[in-house]
Amino acid sequence: MEIKVLEGIFDANEIIARENRELLDGSGVFMVNLMASPGAGKTSFILATLDGVKDSLSCAVIEGDIAGKVDSERIAEQGVAAVQINTGGSCHLEAKQVNHALEHLDLDRLDMVLVENVGNLVCPAEFKLGEDLKVMILSVAEGHDKPLKYPLMFSESDVLIVNKTDLIEHTDFDMEALKETVRKMNPGVEMFEISCRTGEGVERWTDWLTEKVRSA
Amino acid sequence: MHELSVVESMTAVVLKHAERNGAKKVAKINLVLGTVSSVMEEPVRFYFEMLSKDTVAEGAELCFRRTPFVARCKSCGSEYEVEDFDFTCPECKGTEVEIVSGREFQVESIEIN
After folding, report:
1. What is the largest distance, in Å, between two alpha-carbon atoms of chain A?
2. What is the pLDDT of residues A104-130, one digit of tens each?
């Protein structure tokens, strides 16, 4: 006997993602899902972002890593609440883990939660967390051809941060070629060129983000 | 490790429907897998064998139906297969599109005894 099921396998995650969304909306909190490959500069980017918005937004950070808590310690040193999730080998965060992490935060006192996803350009794109904004970082050292290799991530993101622009002269990175490829995959994407090391371009990003959070 | 959690969800969906219909055995599971989903068939088979052990779904045949990556243009309404993630509409060059298929991973039906 054949039984019709027609149930999506990501549905269970998406139901919890919607619950997260409702929970955050109830407290007026904006959530950012930050994705990138290992070493693209996610944690430095978070620190630069927190510094840029510290006078206007109250923030907390959820750190997703396979193991360890070095990232959450770096954030906590800045006086910002940080919750560490260790995925124990799993290569992406799921909505349920974020749901548990949100329990540790005083949402009524917050404007924004930054979620640092596990360093990976593949599966984090498939799992919604309940975020308002998907942000991905590409560092120039990784090369401008990455969108062709990881198209789903580049087509799903609302914002593309091109980081480590201070290194660009030491690489063959072609910014125009990157923009052309990404625009075809994702015409609505916002792009920011920044260097967390020198601070160049960070203000334009944090101003844009602040406005986005306030108007949400 | 990506597929392990995905196959856990898939197995839960199968067992829920098997139980609801009083299945003694699940003979076959028909799955729909989009061509641009990051889920791969082989690891799904591997983890399913592990996760279905000692359940009514142990030994079930997994049958994958692959769906093409198709988008619909919001400007002119035409549907077309997307190549290399270039969403530009081939008819009107529009860039506002919605995805029709190609991303999904779904349990379409199960065959039970």
Report:
1. 65
2. 999 999 999 999 999 998 889 889 999
Q: What is the ipTM of this complex?
A: 0.86
Q: Which of B1, B2, B109 sits opposite A5 (nearest CB)?
A: B109
For residue B99, the distance in angstroms to the closest alpha carbon of chain A comes to 12
DSSP string across A177-188: HHHHHHHHH-TT
Residue of B nearest to A125 (CA): B38
Q: How far is CA A190 from CA A65, A159, A172, A212, B37, in A?
A: 26, 5, 23, 12, 24
At A206, the amino acid letter reads T
Cα dihedral across residues B78, B80, B83, B85: positive or negative: positive
Q: Which residue has the tokens 């898939």?
A: B10
Rg from Cα positions in chain A: 17
Mutating which of B38, B74, B75, B84 best tests the A interface, going by the most A Cβ atoms within 10 A? B38
Please tell me the pTM assigned to this model.
0.90
Which one of A13, A90, A186 has the shortest CB-CB distance to B1? A90
Angle between helices A42-53 and A202-215 (to 10 degrees): 70
DSSP class of residue A10? T
Bin A44: left if φ > 0, else alpha if -120 < ψ < 50, else beta. Answer: alpha
Cα within 13 Å of Cα(B84), Cβ side: 10
Our CA dihedral for A165, A169, A172, A174, rounded to 10 degrees, sits at 50
